[in-house]
Specification:
Elements lengths: L5 H8 L5 E7 L8 E7 L17 H14 L2 E7 L1 H7 L1 H14 L7 E5 L10 E4 L2 H4 L1 H24 L5 H4 L5 H10 L25
Parallel strand pairs: 1-4, 4-5
Antiparallel strand pairs: 1-2, 2-3
Helix pairs in contact: 2-6, 3-4
Length: 209
């Protein structure tokens, strides 16, 4: 199922010219940053196949991310590291990061759309859309940009923190990742506030990315 411009078109018809979508990647990972993106797509952008980034193959995400950067009116990417997530909590960090991405858009925005979360972002309205990255093109675009950006970061981080398979699992709790944690313990790149990360020997249940 591909996202459409239905939300954006209706909002533009109501007088909101710059409709921005925002989304994040890495919320459930055990390691690495949380990355959020905000994207404003122009009418008739011509990017085919926008969808929830998790439903796309990596090569297709890369292709779409390149088109988004080329054709979007504005793209912003922000991140928060593991230490901030541990200090402030995941949900609080996530909401703050999404709002920051929207606020940082060059020339601002008139109306924001998010994936499920309504955000406090100054005077501009931000609507939380259920499964927004599956139905709203600008939210799907933000999802793709955030995911591609974060995946690239994890591939680079794997060279600095070997033994966890970060280049493959992107920081999520795969069996390979848990095995690395049990053997090596958590690195500086891990979120120690997440269940089992600080004491990986206590974890038996594994999750998929």
């Amino acid at each position: 199922m591909f996202a459409t411009a239905l939300y954006e078109d209706r909002l533009r018809a109501a007088g909101f010219d710059r409709v921005a979508g925002c989304d994040e990647a890495g919320r459930g990972a055990l390691a690495g940053p949380l990355v959020a993106a905000a994207v404003i797509l122009p009418p008739g952008h011509g990017i085919e196949g926008l969808a929830d980034s998790k439903l796309l193959l990596p090569a297709r995400r890369e292709q779409l991310a390149a088109q988004i950067h080329e054709r979007a009116e504005a793209v912003v990417v922000v991140r928060a590291g593991p230490e901030r997530i541990d200090r402030c909590g995941l949900h609080r960090t996530n909401l703050a990061l999404l709002a920051k991405a929207l606020r940082t858009l060059p020339d601002g925005f008139d109306y924001g759309l998010g994936d499920g979360f309504a955000l406090a972002c100054g005077d501009e309205p931000v609507l939380g859309v259920r499964k927004g990255d599956q139905v709203a093109a600008c939210v799907a675009a933000a999802s793709i940009v955030a995911k591609v950006t974060r995946d690239r970061m994890l591939v680079r981080a794997a060279r600095r923190y070997p033994g966890y398979g970060l280049q493959r699992n992107k920081g999520y709790g795969t069996p390979e990742h848990w095995a690395g944690l049990q053997e090596l313990g958590p690195s500086a790149y891990h979120r120690r506030s997440f269940t089992g990360v600080a004491n990986p020997g206590s974890m038996l249940a594994l999750e998929d990315p």
